[in-house]
Request: fold
Amino acid sequence: MSMPLNEHIVTSYEDELLLLARLTSEMGGMVEQAISEATTALLKLDREAAQRVRAADRRIDEMQHRIDELAVSVIARRQPMAADLRAVVTSMQVAADLERCGDMAKQLCKRTMQIDSLSLAPMFYNGVKHMKDLVAQQLQTALDAYLTRNSKAAIEVCSRDDEVDAIYNSLFRELLTYMMEDPRNITQCTHLLFCAKSLERVGDHATNIAEAAYYLETGRHLGADEQQRQPR
Amino acid sequence: MDMLAGKVKMTQVPDMAPQTLDPTTRRTRVTARDVTVHYGAKQALFGVSIDIPDRAVTAFIGPSGCGKSTFLRCINRMNDTIEGCKVGGKITIDEDDIYNPALDVVELRARIGMVFQKPNPFPKSIYENIAYGPKIHGIARSKADLDEIVVTSLRKAGLFDEVKDRLQEPGTGLSGGQQQRLCIARAIAVGPEVILMDEPCSALDPIATAVIEELIDELRANYTIIIVTHSMQQAARVSQKTAFFHLGNLIEEGKTEDIFTNPREKRTQDYITGRIG
Reply:
């Protein structure tokens, strides 16, 4: 149930919860940027850009540690209850999902460094780009749903995960075709298959974040029944 | 895994935390319907209705002056002694109307024992503190009976081993936590069905508090316990059902884990998260 909350009597407690939300938002921004830059680096085979994204992943990891430490500290010192407890617990979940998304961006970059050349049809590029756009949109909506406590938007993210899976399956079939056409494509196509899988995993983490957003606002876990009840 | 097996007997791990035991599946021991309390012209309680489950701990929480202690005191008619206090509505224990004029209040208070905020042992020996109730209620027929009640009550209150060699020493010489357990033993000695506790740990240090909380957890196997506490963490730790009072109204009641993780009412949420006092 959504309840607009008043401010805490203890200002420093309020400040800590706000800081937790701000760090989560900041971490979300870093991850969105990493995924976007990593995908661009892959499609342009820009190794320098890929190297920069890999180096930046350490900052994402550090951010997760910061969020975890603050959350644990708040639990130990404030003993949060109800909506506050859910905010603290889900901040750790969301930070873990974001950190995994950061790892996926790093994976894209690692593959970029290993591919010699990309000589595939434009349809493939469009497919990857479309998938990245959709996944980035999913991640952004999930993070917004989390930060604004919007369970309706969270449900929409979960409902749209099928679209990400469908694009992944389509890319998978396309890459298989390239490999069958010419065995010399096998190496780069296998790399690209892993890249598509990484993007698909980001979509899964976006769904996890949306589920955390739903739990944060409602105090209930988002079951399949509730997803189906919502109009698409 | 072998190392772990040596230290932890897996069979001893309970299936679920005590707080997850569903109080709604227990039979109701005490029922309150539309209870109101006036102190003269001032109304302190506004139509409180609640079912108190048997053999479970029910916690009343809320800010000072919210009516939780007032309501607790209605359950064993402690408010009778306050001049100008008028109680309306109905409270029953096992179908017996507590406010039935024909009911013997002394007998009622033996059925519904009470432990207060500040330990209040009689200025008598430890033994006499426990023996006094059974003697005046005619529960013990012989000295041997009385001795047994004293020992059993002290054991149930987890105090026997600490005082067994000094039963004749004054109860007031014990530490605060021991005195509170002595008061719990005194309440148990007359064979109550319900034990009311009015902030029983507010004068105790954290370790003595933990000992009392452990005791409450053991006692709920045999007694219906209602505890008023200012500590929400304590309510969350010891109770299976929680009721939140505010400005003389019962705002929300339910399973403790639901109240503290996902309350239905905004006022409950605001109170337990420290947003209203």
Notes: The beta strands of chain B are 28-39, 42-53, 57-61, 85-93, 96-97, 112-115, 194-198, 224-228, 241-246, 249-255. Chain B has a mean pLDDT of 90.
